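Structure tokens please, single chain.
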Amino acid sequence: MPYIDFVSGVHRATSRDYLGRVNEHDKAACAEVALQWGRDYWDGDRKFGYGGFHYDGRWRDIAEQIAAHYQLAEDATILDVGCGKAFLLYEFTQVLPRARVTGLDISAYAIEHAKEEVRPNLSQGSAVALPYEDDAFDLVLSINTLHNLRNFELQQALGEIQRVGRGAKYITVESYRNEREKVNLLYWQLTCRSFYQPGEWEWAFRQAGYTGDYSFIYFE
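Here you go.
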């Protein structure tokens, strides 16, 4: 279960006003809107989420790194749990021309507004009950999704990822290493349910029987 970082560069590229997040708006009310996973969260005002989640090509390098690291075949089967608008899945189809990609997300809005080229391969659903056969995928990804689950849901979702992946598995979640990063995470997050330090996350992975790779993003 190695630690491998593919995504922190994308995370650090976003500037964040942590104090503004809690001082300028009713953050609790904003979180309630964000948790509906609708237009406001993806493409509405920044106080509700992304402030506009648009394709800009930034996921191409990550797809290339992941494909090379796991030595994926050109026709690899790939599942993204919490795929959002499926920008990463689209990049996999560019890096691996015959890849068979599948995405699942809780947000109907994200699926409806996903990258058009891969939209037919996406479905709405929950990470705690993946509608796929055992050992169905060469690679299962879940990036910046599982920290939105409660602890009992997290165990189910990790078990499901383990079940449907016959090959590589990779998870990225939010974490904190010190009190400053914890405060920044609490200030910034809108949808997070699981707040764990790295050692706690690793314990959760083991408890669920998850054997894949993982990384953390920190709010420094």
